[in-house]
Amino acid sequence: MAKISIFGGRGMIGSQIAYLFERCGNEVEVIGRDYDGHELGDIVVLAVKFADLAPLVETHGKHFAGKIVIDISNPISFANLDSLLVPQGSSSAEILAEKLPQSKVVKGFNINFSDSLATCQVKGKPASLIFAGDSDEAKQAIFSALANSGAKLLDAGKLKRARELEATGLLMINLAVSGQIKRDGGIVIL
Fold it and tell me: Taking Cα atoms as reference points, which of 52, 61, 48, 46 lies closest to residue 4?
């Protein structure tokens, strides 16, 4: 059992991530804008929009030191859904890791839709939850916290693989906007 602190855990995706960790037997704390600086859990999930990520880290980043920090954001231009808002050859997770050198940053949950997170199923098959990060220990802690999820937990490798996860997030959102997949859609790797 792990203690999980989720910033933005009241939104559609954040609430499903909270439910998922709770269902797996973890202690979950959902944090809103009223965070008072109290001690956070060992795993901190930043379930906020990409535009809100930098202000959140600037205000509260010092409290993330020594923590596993999961970045779920998709740095997408919602004006045209055609590009990522990070420099080519980078990712929001890598930028976040630079701002949080005392944290173990992991990219995850950004390619999963809310309904598939709630059930850990995509059309009757185990949903694939894919994580990337430089700390094997951090990814293992996340996998342990999600061991009873029913999902297929996959290690994509180093944090630089977040680039591909974020590009996949852009693709998934485009497929959803065009009506080709719904909130119960997702990726299944057999």
Answer: 46
Helix H segments across 121-178?
A: 136-145, 162-177
Judge whether 170 and 74 are in contact, CB under 8 Å.
yes
Say which DSSP state 61 is in: G
Query: What pLDDT score does 79 carry?
Result: 85
pLDDT at 77: 87
**Phi and psi at residue 87, in whole multiples of 5°?**
-60, 145
Query: Cβ–Cβ contacts within 10 Å for residue 104, how many?
Result: 23
Angstrom distance (rounded) from CA 85 to CA 68: 24
Alpha-carbon dihedral 16, 22, 28, 30, rounded to 10 degrees: 20
What residues in the chain have per-residue pLDDT under 70?
none
Whole-number pLDDT of residue 9:
85
Q: Containing H/E element for 16?
A: helix 12-23
Distance CA 82, CA 76 (A): 8
Q: Look at residue 72 and give its three-state secondary structure.
A: coil
Alpha helices in 31-154 (DSSP H): 50-60, 92-99, 114-119, 136-145
- Measured distance CA(69)–CA(104) in Å, rounded: 6
Q: What is the pLDDT of residue 61?
A: 96
Residues 6+ apart with CB under 8 A from 178: none
